[in-house]
Amino acid sequence: MIRDKYLQQLWDLLAPVPEPLRREWMFDYEEHFRQAGQEGSTEEEIAQELGDPRLIAKEMLLGYRVEQAVSKNGGITHVSRAVFAAVSLGFFNLIFILGPFIALLGVLLALWASSVAIGLSSLVAIYEGVFGEAFTKVQGIYVAITLIAVGMLLGAFSLWLTRVVSRVTLQYLKFNSRVIRVKIK
């Protein structure tokens, strides 16, 4: 009875994972119960030896989210999911992962917004050159070209920085995941 309850709880907690992978993981735990039972351990002893299914599920979800983010080339959405999976493992991760990650996301968002704003301000320069009195038509076009170029350069830098932040965050999450596994075992 303890075995069934333990495995069902673990199965339910791993709901975000695709079913084929979840079945593969669950097979390992079912096999552990079977082998330890053959060796004379009670279901209660086996469950205690394995540990809290909630903690196991959180660790497995972190590994899954990190691998998913790596396989998706570090997309910021997948990296964010991995960060939140890491945060669920404890207060330490809340402070040392989530805080800096949100700060970096704020910087990235500001850079992307600035890039778009500078690019769009070229329209104002063109309008001012054609209809306004601040620029001549030629000056308006040159200012617009300059603003578009600066916006594109800032956009390219923002893209590069986004990829770097994703890569570094994933590396840190992998390291953090290994440290947590070592500490738990």
Automatic annotation (TrEMBL):
TM stretches of this protein: 82-103, 109-129, 141-161
Keywords, ordered alphabetically: Membrane, Transmembrane, Transmembrane helix
Q: What's a Pfam family this protein contains?
A: HAAS
Write down what this protein is called.
Answer: DUF1700 domain-containing protein
